[in-house]
Design brief:
The chain has about 425 residues and is an alpha+beta fold. The chain has 4 domains: about 90 residues, conserved putative lor/sdh protein from methanococcus maripaludis s2 fold; about 90 residues, Beta Barrel (Elongation Factor Tu (Ef-tu), domain 3); about 70 residues, OB fold (Dihydrolipoamide Acetyltransferase, E2P) (Beta Barrel); about 90 residues, Helix Hairpins, CATH 1.10.287.470. The chain is rod-shaped and about 195 Å long. The chain starts with a helix and ends in a 13-residue tail after the last strand. Keywords: Coiled coil, Membrane, Transmembrane, Transmembrane helix. Belongs to the membrane fusion protein (MFP) (TC 8.A.1) family. InterPro entries: Beta-barrel_RND_2, MdtA-like_BSH, RND_pump_MFP, YknX-like_C. It holds the Pfam family BSH_RND.
C-alpha cells in the first residue's frame, strides 16, 4: 500500500512556477550610474575648470596709414576747373547742315564736329576757279603775241642793216615787243592774284567744316541742324557756337585762401583733396602757383593746385575740399605702416615687449615692436596685424597657449576708436 501511495505521489503534477532566469536589472543600473558620473564630471569641468580660466578684456588692432604722412596746416574749399576749355564755333556765318557730336563724346584734335551749308562757299570757289583759268589763258595769249613780236623784231633788225626797211618801222616793232613784254608781266600777276583768290575761296569752303581744336570731351552741344550760327551773333535766334570741349588732362583745382593764412601756402606744397561727391576718396595733389593778386572784396588770394590722379570721376566745376599738408620727413617713406592698439595691450615678458592675441579662447604670445605713443594708444610696427584681438591688462601669469574667457561688452570689453 505504501508503495502504491508513493507511486501515486510520483505521478502527481507539480504546479509550482519554474525558477526565473538571472535578471539584467543590475547591469542597466550600473551603466546608468557610470553615465551619471561622467555627466557630472563634464559639468563639473565646465562649471569649475572653465571658470578657472582668467577673464580678460580685449581690443581690436586697427590699421593705420604710413607713419610719415603729413599733418594739415590749412583747409580750404574750391572747385575743379579746366585750363583748356573751348566753345567751338564756325569762322563764318552759315546754316548748320549736320552736327556730329553728343555730350560726353570724346573727340580728337581735327575731328569734324559739324558742317555748314556750303552752297555760297562752293559758288565763290567756282567763280574763283573760272577767274584763275581766264587769267592763265590771258597769260598764254600775251606770251604768244610776244613771241611773234620778238621774231618780227629780229627780221626787221636784219633788214634795217641792209637798208631794206626804214629805221622808223624797226623802232615801231621794238616798241610793240616791249609793250607785249609788259603786258605779259601784268597778265602773270593777274593770274597770281586769281590763284590767291581761288585759295581764299577754298578756305571759305573749308570754313564750312567745324573741327575740334584739341582732343577732349564734349560737355555741351549748342546747335542743331537748320540753325544759323555766327561768331558775331549778339542775340535772337542765331547761335554762337557748336559745342564745348574740355581737355580732361588739364583739370586742376582753384581755391581761395584768406589773406591772413596765405603765408602758410608755398609752391610745390603737398595737398590732399576730397571731392564733395566722393567723401572717402583722398586725392593726392600739389600746389602749382599762388596767383599774385588779391580779391579786395573777399580778402582772398587764389591758389592753383595740380591733381596727381587722372580719373573720369573728376569733372569740371565739382566742389572740392583741400588740406594743405606739411612736407613729410625725409625718412618717412622708409617707415612701414603698422597697427594701433591700446597701451594696455602691451605687456613685458623678460626683456621683450609682447602682446597676447586671442583665438578660440586661447592666447598666443607674440613679440612686438612698438612705435609712437598716440594718446592712450601705441603704434605697433611688427608682430600684429589689423583685426587681431589683443588682451588688455594681461595677468602676469598669463602665458602662451593659456585658456581665457573674453569679457562681454557690458563687463568692460573695450577697443580703439582711432582711425
Amino acid at each position: 500500500m505504501n508503495n502504491s501511495a508513493d507511486l501515486l505521489k510520483e505521478l502527481r503534477i507539480d504546479r509550482k512556477a519554474p525558477p526565473e532566469p538571472p535578471s539584467r536589472r543590475g547591469l542597466w543600473i550600473g551603466l546608468g550610474v557610470a553615465g551619471a558620473v561622467l555627466l557630472l564630471g563634464v559639468a563639473g569641468w565646465a562649471l569649475f575648470g572653465r571658470n578657472s580660466a582668467p577673464e580678460v578684456r580685449t581690443a581690436t588692432a586697427t590699421a593705420i596709414g604710413n607713419t610719415g604722412s603729413s599733418a594739415s596746416v590749412l583747409d580750404a574749399t574750391g572747385y575743379v576747373v579746366a585750363r583748356r576749355m573751348a566753345t567751338v564755333s564756325a569762322k563764318i556765318t552759315g546754316k548748320v547742315r549736320e552736327v556730329m557730336i553728343e555730350e560726353g563724346q570724346k573727340v580728337e584734335a581735327g575731328q569734324v564736329m559739324a558742317t555748314l551749308d556750303p552752297i555760297d562757299a562752293d559758288a565763290e570757289r567756282n567763280l574763283a576757279t573760272s577767274q584763275a583759268g581766264a587769267a592763265r589763258s590771258q597769260v598764254e595769249s600775251v606770251r604768244a603775241q610776244l613771241a611773234e613780236a620778238e621774231a618780227n623784231t629780229r627780221r626787221l633788225s636784219t633788214l634795217v642793216n641792209q637798208q631794206l626797211v626804214s629805221k622808223a618801222q624797226y623802232d615801231e616793232a621794238i616798241a610793240a615787243r616791249d609793250s607785249l613784254r609788259a603786258e605779259l608781266i601784268t597778265a602773270q600777276r593777274n593770274a597770281g592774284v586769281a590763284g590767291d583768290r581761288l585759295r581764299i575761296a577754298d578756305l571759305g569752303v573749308d570754313n564750312t567744316i567745324v573741327r575740334a581744336p584739341f582732343a577732349g570731351v564734349v560737355t555741351a552741344k549748342a546747335a542743331q541742324p537748320g540753325e544759323i550760327v555766327s561768331p558775331l551773333a549778339t542775340g535772337g535766334f542765331t547761335r554762337t557756337g557748336i559745342g564745348t570741349i574740355v581737355d580732361m588732362d588739364s583739370l586742376e583745382i582753384e581755391v581761395e585762401v584768406g589773406e591772413a593764412f596765405i603765408g602758410r601756402v608755398q609752391p610745390k606744397m603737398p595737398v590732399e583733396a576730397t571731392l564733395n561727391a566722393y567723401q572717402d576718396w583722398k586725392i593726392p595733389a600739389e600746389v602749382i602757383a599762388i596767383i599774385p593778386a588779391a580779391d579786395r572784396g573777399k580778402a582772398t588770394v587764389k591758389v592753383r593746385i595740380a591733381l596727381k590722379v587722372k580719373d573720369p570721376r573728376i569733372v569740371p566745376d565739382m566742389g572740392v575740399r583741400v588740406s594743405f599738408l606739411e612736407a613729410a620727413r625725409a625718412e618717412a617713406p622708409k617707415q612701414q605702416p603698422g597697427v594701433l592698439v591700446p597701451a594696455a595691450a602691451i605687456a613685458s615678458r623678460g626683456n621683450d615687449q609682447v602682446a597676447f592675441v586671442v583665438s578660440d579662447e586661447k592666447v598666443q604670445q607674440r613679440k612686438v615692436s612698438v612705435g609712437r605713443s598716440l594718446g592712450e594708444d601705441r603704434e605697433v610696427t611688427q608682430g600684429l596685424s589689423a583685426g587681431d584681438t589683443v588682451v588688455l591688462d594681461a595677468p602676469d601669469k598669463l602665458a602662451d597657449g593659456d585658456r581665457v574667457r573674453v569679457a562681454a561688452e557690458g563687463e568692460g570689453a573695450s577697443g580703439t576708436d582711432n582711425e
